[in-house]
Amino acid sequence: MNFSSSGVIGLMLVALFLTKPADSHAQCGTSDFELLCNEGDMVNDAVFDCGFSCFLSSEITACFAQCIAESIPQMSEGCVTCFAEQSTCVSNNCFFACAFGSEADCEACVAQNCQSNFEVCAGVVDLDQDGETNICDCNDGDASVYPGAPGTGEGVDNNCDGIISNEEEEEDVVACPLDLDGDLAVTVSDVLTLLSEFGCAQDCNNDVSGDGQVSVADVLALLGGYGMTC
User: Is 21 left (phi over 0), alpha (psi -120 to 50) or beta?
Assistant: First the structure.
């Protein structure tokens, strides 16, 4: 039995191009979207391998869930559930289209049969309708901001790469990461701003060290730049 990689491509296309608003029960969080954005090929390969392992299982959804969770331990349990249900849907409805048909046939089948439930489950949306979902779009409320967007020279990270593009000077200017209050200087105010979030371990606004949390490392980094101007 030749299970084509086009089946997995169909799965990832669903994750990357959905546009309906997510409901309040979306199972994939910020860390899951970062994983999908930065490690999409790894997730794609894991789902493909699980397709081989589980398509003959008598408990196919449970098999997919266990296989995906073991293959992608970084993914949250809720998001794993969404992928498991999506994989089951593809296996039940699109196996022949994806295993023996063209890539276009597979994608069409997935979109018709499995897209809607997955998008609600995962919470993948494109609220600003700029063609990029909230998986990689760093501001899904602004249609001028998306991965690969052209710079505007207005001091905004339009392309979501962490660098502010200044078109007028035709060079990239790195934002001042230690200036937390935006006054173009690292002062006591910035220290107090950081300390107000000390101990944060997820979705932190003042993670100046880039390790995903606000800890002693951030305090030391801030103090190291204390007094500098931006």
Answer: beta
